[in-house]
Amino acid sequence: MDSSSIIVTPQAQDFAKDISVKPAAEPQNAPNITQKGPDPQPISQATGAPDLAPGQKPDPKKQPSIYGEIPQIPVLDAVEGIKFDFNHGIRILFPQNGKNYHVTFTDIDTGIILYSADTVPGAFITSVKKFFIRFRLIIHDKGNDTPIFTHDYDATGKEVMIQLPVGTIGDSIGWFSYVERFQQKHKCKLVCVMTPWIADIFKKQYPNITFITTEETKTHRPYASYYMGLFFRGDVDNQPIDFRYIGLHRTAGYILGLEDTSDIPPRVDLSAPRKIKEKYVCIAAQSSSQAKYWNNPFGWITLVQFLKDNGYRVLCIDKEKVHGIGLNWNYIPYGTEDFTGDIPLQERINLIKDADFFVGLSSGLSWLAWCCKVPVVMISGFTHPTNEFATPYRIINYHTCHSCWNDMRENFDHYDFLWCPRHKGTDRHFECTRLISAEQVINTIKKIPTFRPSEKPKDAAAKDDATARDPGIKNSQKIDSYSEWKDKQSSTKSQIPPEKILAAGLIGMKDGKHKK
Predict the structure, then answer these.
(1) Confidence band of 49 (pLDDT split at 50, 70, 90)
(2) 203 lies in which domain range?
(3) C-beta of residue 122 within 8 angstroms of C-beta of residue 19
(4) In terms of domains, do 368 and 434 share one?
(5) Total domain count for the chain?
(6) Measured between alpha carbons, how far is 505 from 304 in angstroms, rounded to an integer?
(7) Confidence (pTM)
(8) Same domain, yes or no, for 411 and 349?
(9) Were 389 and a residue from 187, 189, 263, 487 both cysteine, which residue would form a disulfide, CB within 3.0 to 4.6 Å?
(10) Which of 306, 322, 329, 315 is nearest to 284 (CA)?
């Protein structure tokens, strides 16, 4: 048997005794249609997880699928009661009519035969490869060289479903940039499964795409469907090439079989009037894993002071003011204005679009800023720059450990917030961003054409009342380094709140070095 395909027969699986064109759990009053051939069968409206054969029950021990459902019975009619479609790979279901057939499917573009074998009554055949392939299906009566049915994949005018069901901003934005390109290439009626609060920023910009939720997939009977995702541990069945080679977003282009995998940000509504008259910068310092953070304890506090010295308001637009797990917590950077909160993405867009530039991590709000067409300064050490969209203001230190996320020898652990596969538990833990200096970031910012340095002398700029906009710091003393903070502590007993000191990363430091 060809390794690129699997066949499920009554002899091979316990549940196969219930497999037929009519599933075990046929809905009441299911509509009937007359098909060509001697064996008309009712159409099932039942749906299920994409990896289940008709009549198969999900394993309760396995994690539920994050994807929406597809029809349990393939939706297209071939001949003699044979059903097929291209939902999650090519699927062919043979009826219990006592006949044996020979089925072949090939890749039209490469000319390769992917599968060719005799069948038995009730057989359900599906390709192992689930990414886009332009299939040709050929069916013969067993022992007869003349085909009784042939079909070439052609999505023109047909409904195709692309699923982006995860509720993460960066993944959804990155993958969606390829969805419209698929629609334009194939001239299909495209249905996109997306988390509603993310889909809200795209619906008006893409009127030719229908957006639905995972629950609403049950009412659709697409010609083909494809699943976007990051498939780990060397999976090349759901993706043609491991995403770590090509980047988080470009993997969607490969899954969808697109020739153009260039970086094109999705369109969003940038028409809202400007709300803040002064020049300002948006930053986002929080993320879903500690490896993504800028772990230099003086990084943000030094950068924020630099920006304020140059007359900028610095707005922190993270969802969370404080984020972490166990004993590891990350706080809103000291000196920033608190614009955090769980608010609609369109409101974030309205704020980001008029910023002189954005400073963030390899995380969702950086992808949103990419859509807003502002310069994005991205600080990341655990990913290689090819992992994200291209920006001339990408910050990485190649003099230290870096790019473990894109290392084929490492597998990301979603459940380990402190994941650092090479140096966890050593004094090199997270050195990839601990050794990204504020100086490196500042020097990069100075190259941005939209950066507007202060015309005031530094001493005068330091006396600005910009900090008065943030009640949490308006009475705090300015500090530029650990040694200055230490001097102020001993001489004046600084009134800086303890939580602000934590935010600056000063607790746990001694003479500028980590305590052992």
Answers:
(1) low
(2) 163-255
(3) yes
(4) yes
(5) 3
(6) 14
(7) 0.79
(8) yes
(9) 263
(10) 315
What is the per-residue pLDDT across 199-214, written as a single tens digit (0 to 9) for each? 999 999 999 999 999 9
Q: Are residues 233 and 292 in the same domain?
A: no
Decide if 171 is catalytic.
yes
Q: Assess whether 194 and 124 both reside in one domain.
A: no
- 392: domain CATH number? 3.40.50.2000
Determine the pLDDT at residue 208: 96
Let me know whether 128 and 205 are in one domain.
no
Same domain? 251 vs 389: no
DSSP state of 56: P
pLDDT tens digits, 468-516: 444 444 434 444 444 454 455 455 444 444 444 444 443 333 333 434 3
Beta bridge partners of 360: 378
* Digit-coded pLDDT (tens) for 272-295: 999 999 999 999 999 999 999 999
The domain boundary residue, chosen from 152, 171, 191: 152
Q: In the prediction, which pLDDT does 455 show?
A: 81
Give CA separation, 432 vs 147, 405, 435, 476, in Å. Answer: 60, 12, 6, 31
Identify whether 308 is part of a domain.
yes
The pLDDT value recorded for residue 445 is 98
For residue 373, what are the contacts with CB-CB under 8 A and spacing of at least 6? 265, 270, 353
- Angle among Cα 277, 282, 285 to the nearest 5 degrees reads 155
CA-closest candidate to residue 94, choices 143, 136, 53: 53
Instruction: Give me the pLDDT at residue 53, please.
Output: 62
Helix (H, G, I), strand (E, B) or coil at 316: strand
Residues 362 and 434 in one domain: yes
Structure confidence by residue, pLDDT tens digits, 226-259 = 999 999 888 999 999 999 999 999 999 999 999 9
On whether both 385 and 427 belong to a single domain, the answer is: yes
Beta strand 394-395 with 376-379 is: parallel
Q: CA 122, CA 93: separation in Å to the nearest integer?
A: 7
Asked whether residue 268 is domain-assigned, the answer is no
CA–CA dist 233, 114 (Å, integer): 24
Q: Which entry of 171, 309, 318, 356 is annotated as an active-site residue?
A: 171
At 107, give phi and psi (nearest 5°).
-95, 110
Burial pattern 269-284, b for ≥16 Cβ within 10 A else e, equals eeeeeeeeeebbbbbb
